[in-house]
Amino acid sequence: MGGAKKVLIPAALALASSAGLLTVEVLIARQGPPSPPHPAVPIDVAAGPPGDAVHRVVWLGDSTAAGLGASRDLEILPMQVARLLGKPVRLTDLGHSGDRIADVLHDQLPRAATHRPDLLFISIGANDVTHLTPRSAFRRDYAAVLAGLPASVRTAVVLGIPDMGTSPRIPQPLLAIAWVRGRVMGADVRALAARTPKAIYVDIAGRTGTPFREDPMRYFAADLYHPNDAGYGLWARAVVDTLEEHQSRAANHLR
Q: What are the phi and psi torsion angles at 215 (to 5°)?
């Protein structure tokens, strides 16, 4: 028993010290450069090239879906994706800064059904990583979102969790912890999407992480946390490239 105490007491002290350090680092990160003004979020607007709408599109998610960091509403992620799709759409963006997967499940998803989308995008998870949402709760709620997609949805595009180890705003070791949690929870998103017939998974971390790491001042907004116009452009290209690859594989399968 005495030997066990000698091991457990230093371990407990180290854990308490680490928890204190992480708390301080979270406070430091929150006191970093302010976020840019929030662009307007489109609700049932025409997007993409002019013409009769081919899709009714709804976005769900957090600040990345809402476009925090973009210079104006035309440069938010949903609008950039609509342009790259090259098809006229009716776009509604229900993304809200700070939201987590539970917010998408209980608030955004019921509202999405009223817009009867046939194409749905989901960009959520970064706040669950940084706010330490239990992994089991994250998986449970994400699975419930995918199981509860509106009946009108033909395709749900599921964006994975971004590379959480790229932000210059977050100090170490908090940055490393966020990176690890992001990878683990991102793998959960990939697995859940793979089990959902209507879902197409976009590996945002894998497709855009390297440019953000190599040239953060080019792709991050002034707050050094959210993407800027160019950063969202990288995300939009990753989304549309994934959709085109999926369509190409489907066409080859039918031959």
A: -145, 65
In 80-206, beta strands by DSSP E: 89-93, 119-123, 155-159, 199-202
For residues 211 and 219, is the Cβ–Cβ distance under 8 A? yes
Q: What's the average pLDDT block by block, 10 residues per block, for the chain (255 residues)? A: 39 37 45 67 93 96 96 96 96 97 98 97 96 96 98 98 93 89 97 97 98 96 95 98 91 64
Closest C-alpha to 177, from 30, 10, 25 = 25
Strand, coil or helix: 36: coil
Q: How long a stretch of residues is the chain?
A: 255
Helix (H, G, I), strand (E, B) or coil at 59: strand
Pairing mode, if any, of strands 155-159 and 119-123? parallel
List Cβ neighbours of 133 (8 Å cut-off, separation of 6 or more).
100, 101, 102, 127
